[in-house]
Amino acid sequence: MRRTVPLLLVAVVAVAVGAGCADRVAPAARVGDTVVTTDQLLDEVSEWAGNDQTARATELAGSTSEWGYAMAPVVSILHERIILDITATTFDDLGLELTDASRDEALGVLIGDPTQAEAAFAGFSDEYADRYVDDFAKGVAVQQELGEEEFRAMILDGARDVEVNPRFGTWDAANASIIPPEGPRPAPGTEVLTDPSAGL
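Below the sequence we write its predicted structure tokens.
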């Protein structure tokens, strides 16, 4: 298996975002035709916060935002969701199918030993654990199908069709990453939005 697979997880931007409470009605991000709502993001964050077997649980509790979580790992989780959604679209476009082997490979990347999955994911709901492994396995399958160079090109191509709610930062399509806001966001309803992406 290629050593670049962790790009799906590790290439995240861990940033301290001085954001106010985001409008829960507005999407957190758009990835092509896929919408990641703020509620969906916070549901995913709560899954990680509730799994004390992961480093993210500690990071999320490290300091609090308006939502009660440290913002850096929240943005990291959003970035990871964007990358996984890009690869999921390519997975479907390529007509690939999930197999037990690809799931085991994904578990190998995520936790090292697939036989330890039950313990590692015990803090997740069954639904989220299954979805997360499947999403990651799709990324593994896509990378194996395309190869390292084409995989990276695919991520950057998909990044051109991504928008991020400015409360979480600015999407840098050239690097497929999230850049934090320059300073604290104003209170909801008081800001003047000039960035075209602020209409999210």
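Strands lie at 27-31, 34-37, 162-164, 170-172, 177-179.
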